[in-house]
Structure prediction request, 429 residues.
Amino acid sequence: MTLQIVVGTQWGDEGKGRIVDWFSAGADYVARYNGGDNAGHTVTVGSQVYKLHLVPSGIIHPQVIAVLGNGMVINPRTLLDEIALLRQAGVDVSPRRLRISSFAHLITPAHRALDAALEAARGKTSIGTTGRGIGPAYTDKAARRGLRMGNMLDANFVEQLGEHLAEANRMLELLGAPPLDPEPVCREYGQYAAALKDYITETSRELHSALRAGKTVLAEGAQGTLLDLDFGTYPFVTSSSTIAPGALTGLGLGLDVAAGARVIGVVKAFQTRVGSGPFPTEVSGSLAERLRGTGAHPWDEYGTTTGRPRRVGWLDVVLLRYAVRLNGLSDLAVTKLDILSGLETVHLCVAYESNGRRHEHLEAGPFSLQSFQPVYEELPGWAEPVSACRCWNDLPSAARAYLDRIADLCGVPVRFVSVGPEREQMIER
Ligand code: IMP
Prediction:
């Protein structure tokens, strides 16, 4: 019985897609447990670049059964577009290979409209959401008025959708936003229900049985620890449980099958964030431009979902220690090491300082980070490009020292290093 969980340790965009792709080669199931099409995972195989928002990227491996878990919120239109794109690229996507939890919640155009209206109402204090309706869909779930994927199988689904739209229109009106015309939405969603019905099923039992039968289930986290609804930089977070324990509730797995789970924390070699909220190690100017890239490559630091330039900074080990604890990490996978080549020195934030006191851990969580000053350790950089390195000893000694220092500072070994976007640009230590 092997449960593996791949989780982001930062504010998302850590490069989880390629680590999931690596582990998927040996997995029987790959299952997403949280979020929706706010996520964007990029996987490069040869000349093909797959940008996936909903379908677990593991589906690219022919032996994998992909699961969209109950913890997700699903926009059926995005899902059907993605299925069509994958098929065009020659990937077999059928109910034999893709299952959708009947308990996952449905995203409707009303959720997207509400997301936009709520952000507009927040004005200067807006969260900078992806605009995909994620928050309003989870709000409906918590308020016990949401529609679930399983409702698409009901004979009166369109009627239920009509009631949801009528209620959402009342809220839109309160927010001063234009209401939606229910008729085209109901027609469109009726078609989506027909197209998706064969994929919708109760998935937790199948995953549980698979683990009991000794199969490997890889749980794929979306976003990152610092965007977790409970433990992230609240209120600048997403609305789901992004952390590794969320894989259990988000897939319907019990603690029996979680014993001995391998939890791989994905850490970008530097720090990035999209949207608003605190970011103690943020940098600006030419260093920021250097870390972000120009946007010419799919791996440059521009949002996969929204295209927004990401904020960038030095790796923050105080926040990483927090992620180690919350996720129970067993391994670290460091990505984008190649981007740091050519810098004279690299910085690691090893502690925070506030009012003359040094803090190595977040004592009160990541909530009022504005009052902390990062304490940096400066390490020698490396001039050599690392993208052709395929084993630990190929790496320049300064790059190895940087990685070893990260492991030392947070107490978890760095077992994987990615040095470029291609599948083979990975070092397993
Ligand atoms: P929402 O998930 O669209 O509600 O957005 C809430 C916050 O999470 C915003 O700051 C987004 O930029 C951020 N966010 C959501 N999904 C992702 C992601 O996949 N990567 C990085 N940031 C994300």
